[in-house]
Amino acid sequence: MVASALGPRTVLDALLDLIVQAHTIAAQAAGGPFPAWLDERADALGERREVDHEQLKVMLPGIRLAVRTGEETPYPNVVLECGVPFWVNRRAERAGW
Asked: End-to-end CA distance of the chain, in Å?
């Protein structure tokens, strides 16, 4: 999926309807705008893991879905570990339904 026309934040917001159990970012991103944006969605992202950027790249062969966001800030990558939404509608849950 190429998301540069939509923007990375729009794409990631759409993906948060998934059941995200944990997320991994590059430790080098700390203090930048991307982790702060993720912090605003902490309730939907599960546990945060931080690894070296090189280790994040090593994880790529095991990824089942990759989204190219076109983000231009340093280290904007995030790996989402997802479960299966058998009974939870995350959008309804976040909206308080």
From this structure: 30
Question: pLDDT band at 1, cuts 50/70/90?
Answer: very low
Rounded distance between C-alpha atoms, residue 55 and residue 74, angstroms: 16
Instruction: At 57, list the tokens.
Output: 């790249």
Whole-prediction pTM value? Answer: 0.66
Distance CA 44, CA 19 (A): 8
Question: How many domains is the chain partitioned into structurally?
Answer: 1
Q: Has residue 35 been placed in a domain?
A: yes
Asked if residue 21 belongs to a domain, the reply is yes
Task: Write out pLDDT tens, residues 19-66.
Answer: 788 889 889 888 888 888 888 888 888 899 999 999 988 988 888 777
Strand arrangement of the beta sheet that strand 47-51 belongs to? 47-51, 20-26, 78-82
